[in-house]
């Protein structure tokens, strides 16, 4: 019986290391499923973009803290194209600097010191582009992922 308990303990430890510990090393802290107030938000911005603009706006239904943000684009065409994505609550950016998007690669944001979305504020997703684009060229199908915690 003692050997069986030792074997079960060893198997539990191996299973934890192999499967359960992956959350311990994640770039974004993984809250417990029992933790209330977390909201994942996927914002698909479909189409082709080649100008500076606010592409998405909404009114925050509550106060939130941005816990994580990342962005990607499906493809890009143009001459020396660059694109940054910024998330703002009113006029205040949630990032220490806007996300530099690379087509086909997911880029994580570096959050500002207080990435707090104010209750009832207008939240916007702003694009700033560099390079030059002919008609029909630009950044295609951008996705912004946000992980928010209600304040």
Task: Write a short abstract of this structure.
The chain is mostly beta strands. It has one helix at 2-20, and strands at residues 38-49, 53-59, 64-76, 79-89, 92-93, 99-100, 107-108, 116-117, 122-132, 139-150.
Which class of secondary structure composition applies to the elements? mainly beta
Q: What is the percentage of strand-forming residues?
A: over 45%
- Our count of helices gives 1
Mean pLDDT: 87
Query: Cα-atom Rg, whole angstroms?
Result: 20 Å
CATH topology: Jelly Rolls
Give the overall silhouette. globular
Number of domains: 1
List the helices and strands and how they pair.
Layout: H1 2-20, E1 38-49, E2 53-59, E3 64-76, E4 79-89, E5 92-93, E6 99-100, E7 107-108, E8 116-117, E9 122-132, E10 139-150
Search tags:
single chain; 151 residues; mainly beta; Jelly Rolls; five-stranded antiparallel sheet; 1 helix; 10 strands
